[in-house]
C-alpha cells in the first residue's frame, strides 16, 4: 500500500457505478463537471450484473420453454422440448456482458474517470480509494454516494452452497427439482416463477397474510392463481425457523399456525429484502446522518446534511428500484450544477415481472382515499381487447384512478401481458397533468394492448365502447 500519496482533485466524485451512480456521473459530466466514478466490483452494479437484467433474461427463457410446451390452443405442438440450462446461463451472461460493457463505454465517452477500488471518507472533501495493491486520495468539491444494497441474510439461514440469495439463485448451473423460497415479495415471486416455468417444484413461505403485499389483492391473486397452475405451493403466515444442509439438499424448518413443520428441497432461496450498503464507507468521518437502519437522510435535491455530499438509490428512503436510483442520480447531478431540480415520486412506477405482469404508478384507490382525495376508479379487462385475445393472454385488467372533481389521472394499476411497458403511458399522463378525457381522445393504434388504456379512460368518462356500461 502506498503511503503519503499525492491527492487527485476532481469536481464531483461518484461512489458506485450501478444504475444510480453511472447515470449521475454521466449527467454531471454533461453539465460541465470533472467527474470521477469509483466502483469496487462490476460496472452496472447489482441491477445489470446480478439483479434486474439477468433475472429478466432467465424469466424470458422460462417463458420460451413454457410456450414451446403449451401452445396447443393455437394449434402448435412440439415433442421432446428440452432445456440446455448451460446455454440458458450463457444467454443470460451474454446479455449482462453487452450491457456492462456498454456502461463502461458510455462513461468513457463522457470523459468520466473510472477508478476501481473501495472508497472511504476521510472528511467531507476527501476520499481514500483502496484496492488490493495500493491506495489513492481524492479531493472533491461534491460527492454522490450510490453504493446500493445487498440481500438481507437471516441469522438462521446463513448463505452457503444450498442456502442462496438472489445472486446465487441466478447463477445455478442446473434446474433444481425442488426449491423453497422464503419471501413472497417481488424477487421471490419473479425467481420462483422462473424456475417453476423450467419445471422446478416451488414452495413459497411468506410471513404475511399474502404474497406481493405492496400490490392490490386483485392483482396479486391473479399471479398466485397462475403460479398454482404451475404447481407452486404457497404457505402464508409462516415463520421460517432454520435450515439443515447436507451434500444433496436442505431441510427447511418453519412454523405454521403454531405447528412445527419441515420441507425438503435441493435449495432454499432467501429473499426477504435488502439492506443499504452504508456501513463500510466511513460516513461518520464526513459527518453524514443516517437512520438506525443505515438509510441516509436527504432533502428534495438528494443532498445529505453535509451540503456538498449527496446520496441516491437504495441507500435513501423509498422503494429500492433501479429506475428510482437513475432518476435521483440525474436530480443530484443537476442540483450540483446549480439547477432547480427536485425529486417528485408521484409517478414512479413499480413492476413485477410475473405472470401476468403487474405494474402500478401514482395513487391506488385506497391510498387516495386515505389522503382524503375523492376519486373514481375505472376498469377495463384484457379479455375485451382484440390483441390480448390474439395473444391468448386475456388474464388481467387496467384500473385508472382519477380525481372526481375534474377527471385528473392520479394513478393506474395494470395486471396483464406487457403491463411493464404499458405503465409508461400512465406515468406520462400523471406527470403531464392529463385527464381521463385526454387519454380517451388520444388515438391508439389497433389492434394493440395500448388500446386498453384508452378503453379504461372511456369507462372513466362514462362512454365505454367495448364493454357495456
UniProtKB/TrEMBL annotation:
Keywords associated with the record: Cytoplasm, Disulfide bond, FAD, Flavoprotein, NAD, Nucleotide-binding, Oxidoreductase, Redox-active center
FAD/NAD(P)-binding domain residues: 11-329
Residues holding NAD(+): 183-190, 206, 273
Gene Ontology CC terms, in alphabetical order: cytoplasm
Group of enzyme by EC: oxidoreductase
Cofactor requirement: FAD
Main localization, broad class: cytoplasm
Cofactor note as given: Binds 1 FAD per subunit.
The UniProt record lists the keyword Nucleotide-binding: yes
GO biological process, one term: 2-oxoglutarate metabolic process
Limits of the Pyridine nucleotide-disulphide oxidoreductase dimerisation domain: 348-456
Keyword flag Iron: no
Protein name as catalogued: Dihydrolipoyl dehydrogenase
Organism (species): Cytobacillus firmus (Bacillus firmus)
